[in-house]
Amino acid sequence: MSYPTHRLRRLRKNENLRRMVRETRLSIDNFVYPFFVCSGKNIRREIKSMPGCFQLSIDNLGKETKEIHKLNIPAIILFGIPEKKDEFGKEAYVKDGIIQRAVREVKNSVPSLIVITDICLCEYTSHGHCGLIRKGKIDNDATIEILAKVALSHARAGIDIVAPSDMMDGRVKAIREVLDDNGFEEIPMMSYAAKFASSFYGPFREAAESAAKYGDRKSHQMDPANPDEALREIALDIEEGADIIIVKPALPYLDVICRAKERFNITLAAYHVSGEYSMVKAGGRLGWINEKEVMMESLLSIKRAGADIIITYFAKEAAKLL
What we know:
The mean pLDDT is 94. The protein is globular. By secondary structure, it is of the alpha/beta class. Helices cover 39% and strands 17% of the residues. Helix 7 (227-240) crosses helix 8. The protein has one domain (25-321): Aldolase class I (TIM Barrel), CATH 3.20.20.70. The chain has helices at residues 15-20, 58-70, 98-109, 140-157, 171-181, 202-208, 227-240, 254-264, 274-286, 291-305, 315-321, and strands at 31-38, 44-46, 54-57, 75-81, 114-119, 133-134, 137-138, 161-164, 190-195, 244-248, 268-272, 309-312.
């Protein structure tokens, strides 16, 4: 009887051996946890399509961030749900807006926690689109002027990282210039450089109350069929001053994450989005999958593809297991 020369199973036969030769390691340090902040007091409203995730009033946000700190998760990203909306998204950049107040609360509660804020208008506009509408279309250049004002207002509130997610052309450069001109040159920018027009965002629209009243976002978010274009988008954002780039969603675009990491070797984040989270939760509740194992395998695959940072609603659960 002949035997194979190479037996790769030799290094898989027990857990300690598997640990010793493991190529990819997932860490709590990789995680960013998203929060949805709303007006009012003592609100902790579960999001129906995202079990375990909540809309929180600012007072409860402070309590929740203390839990994040205890779990050693280094960062959070904030999404605001304003009390009122208009067609220009003015509440996005007022001094005492929902996010501006939330940032101050978090920094008072847990000063060392890294606070990232999403920069977009979809949560603040009455029509639900990511920019200003002129003659039935998004006015790109007028929108980036507003986005720069939003970023500056967040910087003044005390954020650590600004994250524009709107996908307007030229917004990274515009925001960088405004921040630098106002003394915030040390605030990094985490740009949603390759944000695809994905069907996986559905539960987020409920959570952030940001569904478009008409039309869609395909004129500015990327066509899911275009990975080469994604690399061009990433290259432009890096050229304009992005310090970290985001690929969103994560699991359907692992190829883009891998190619971007190999091409640019820049700090890379992946957003493990609401639809990805909700599917795992639903499958787990129905007993069709082992929820914890699928969660960890999914997060590991994102890290393996090349992501240094993973924005995920699973951050707390995964941190407890790690």
